[in-house]
Structures are given as C-alpha cells and as structure tokens.
Amino acid sequence: MDENNFVLKKFTPAQFLNFALGFFGLQFAWQMRIILSGPVTESLGASPFIYGLIWLAGPFTGMVVQPLVGALSDKTVSPLGRRRPYLLGGALLASVALWIFPNSANVADFISHFTGIQLPALTALLIAAIMIWIIDACVNVAQGPYRALIPDIVPEEQYSIANSYISLAIGLGSVIAAGAAPFLKIIFDYQMSVNAQFIMAALAFTLGMIWTCLTIKEYNTKKEMVKDVAVAEIKEDTFWDALKNFFALSPEVTKICVMQFFTWIGTMCVMIFFTQFCVHTLYCVPDLTTAAESTKQLFDDAVISGTNFSSICFAIFNLICFLVAIPIGVLSAKFGNKKVHIISLLSMVLAYLGMAFVKDIKFVAVMMALAGIGWASICALPFAMLSQFIKKGTEGSVMGIFNIFIAGPQVFVCTLVAWFISKCAFHMGSDYINYHWEYAFLVGAACLLIAAIVAKTVKEKA
What we know:
- This protein is an all-alpha fold.
- It has helices spanning 13-43, 48-54, 57-75, 84-100, 104-115, 123-153, 159-188, 194-215, 222-232, 239-247, 251-282, 293-298, 300-335, 337-357, 361-378, 381-387, 395-402, 404-422, 439-455, and strands at 425-428, 432-435.
C-alpha cells in the first residue's frame, strides 16, 4: 500500500500465497479438530447428544468472540498493526490446547495423582471439552481479523481472487491434515498416533501464522489508522449500534446473511457428523459410549479403519476445494459471484443426497469430491459478495458480525440435529445399538437448497 495516498496496489500471485499461508495453518488445525474430536470424545464417554453439545464451542465462541475481536481489531493500535496481534495470539494459545486435547485422560490422571483426590470418571471428558472450547475460541480470534485483512490491504477488484486464495489455503491445509495419517498407513503401514497428529496441527497453525504476519504489510501507526478510518466516520460505540449499521449497509446484506445461515446449517451437518457416519454406518461399529473396555477392543480395527476413511474423504473433499478455488474466483469475476455460488451449492445438495441413500464406500468418496466444489465456493464467494458493501474502516466489525450467521447455524446442528440423531437408534443384533447418522445429510441438503434459492434473490453491484 502507498502510505502517502493510501492507494492499494494490486497483489501478485506470490503476495497472495504469502497472505494465505496463515489461513493454511489455521485450517490445518481446524480440520484435525473436525476429524478427530469425535473419536477422542467418544472414547471418553460422549454420547451423540453430548458430542453435539461439546461442538457448541464453535458457534458460541464464533458468535461472541469474532464480533468482539473484529470490532477491537478495527480500533487496535500497536507496533504489530491492527490485525496481527490477534492472528499471533490466537495461533499460539490454540497450539497449547491442541497439544492438551488428545492427552485429556493423562492430564486427569496427573491431577488426580498430584492432588491425591479421586476425580469423577468424566473428568477427562470435561478437560477435553474445555480444550475444544479454547481451540475454537482461538480459531475465531484469528479468523475474524484475518478475513478483515482483505478489504484492509487488497484492492476491491481483487476481493474475489483474495478470497479464492483463502479458499485454496483452506483446501490445501485440510488435504494435508486429513491425508497425512492415511497416507502413512497405506504407503508405509505406519499408523500415526492421534497425539502426533495434533502436535502437527499445532506446529502448522503457529508457523503458518508467523509467516503471514512477517510477510504482509498493514497499518502500523495510529496516524495511518486514523487517517483512513476517519473517512468512514465510524460511530459503532456498542454492539447493537454496530449490528444496526451492519444491516443498514444495503438490503442485499440481509439476503446474504440469510443465505449464509442456511448454507452453514448444511455445511456443519457433514463437518460434525461425517466421521461418526463413516465409523458407525459404513464400517458398522455400534455405539460404544457405555461399552466395557473389552468390548471396545473388539472394534478397535474397525474404528481405526472408519476414522482413516473419514480422513481420506475429507482429504478428497478439500483437494477438490483446493483445485477449483482459483477457477471459481476467475469464473465469478467473469460471470458474477451469485451464479457461480448457486451452481456450487446445488452440486453439494446432490452429493449429500447421494451419501444419505447410497451407503457404498467408493460412492461416498465420489460424493465427497462433488461436495468439495460447493465447499470451495462457500469459503470464498459469500465473503466476496459481502465485501462489496463494507465501508472503509469497519472491516473487522462487519466480518465479525457476519460470522454470527456462520456460527449461529451450528447451534441448530449441535443441538437439534444431534438430538434428532440420538432419537433415531436401531438395534444391531441383540447386543448393540447404532444411530442413523446419515439423517444429518438429509437436513443439510434441504438447507443448502434453501440457501441457493435465497442466493438467487441477491442483487450484486455491477
């Protein structure tokens, strides 16, 4: 950026890659949490409904942390700039929680041994839940200011491409996170431990964010910030003022928020329940939350196989996201964000319906690839559509408030959908029960279809 007249210079591909590397690390950590939080918490005694409640960490921290941190970052003055303190702080604290989470049982044993107090059986599950809340809170601390960097430092005509590079980073980070353990197992017959996978995630998050913070340029002084922010005449002294001004940006902002709300109900139906679907539905592992250790050992190999297959599917899902991220940005620049986004959402609807009705392992992998097209669009185009209506100087608070329509739908999935699945039990033989995890995909398909219909009504700027 030219510091004299504040004209934003166009980014080169190399600058976009530097910019996106921190989000690569963020998504690496988030993907590991998505894939492995189910098996870890289930092994500690979490039922489907309790697992859903633990997942509330994401939406609640998203609805509270991102708007708050986004607004704070708009007004932050520090030697590191406006956004970078939150990017670095979130990454470092999350890395500590990522290390503790898979060791929750060991931490509970250590506390019990150190204090001499016999702790309740569910203490380890409580520690794991707390770590998930910390991880999710820190991801949100970093994510909101990260999205706000785009209108901060990128010219408006490059918003779609910038968001597509973030989509690319999300895809690549998720592919490597999801594919590392299955790759080592298939190629070298080495099963990577859960602990090692979370340590890898912690390193990726921290190192990726440090690299981006070292290579990007943003506002560094109060003088620079005030000169630019003064143009916006920001008056959001309270959250409610900020919310009112958010919806006053344009009538189209409300439509984009409604679209985003239903999009993320659909998205999280797979993110939250897919690993459990693979383990319990595709690999026929019964519910083991109250089973004895000897019974759990009978299904150890099937649980590992199901978890590895889930990782492979998430790797495929995100590999497609990675491959189509930049083409989606190019196509949206040519044909408009709305048209490309609608087609992408409809491809995801078809994928969900396929997985719900055809429980074949190879077919499910193909459907996850198809769903990856929609995921690439979801990671980029709604933000590009919204960025057209953001006033200068309000980027952080706007992106923070917009995250409510990502986080809020997750509450619906974590509670009502999880409760619905917990009520859809069936018997496996005479000794075991299981659940219809695939029902989550039907709910998701319906919501994504609604999102596509709402997207059709959005009027984009020329």
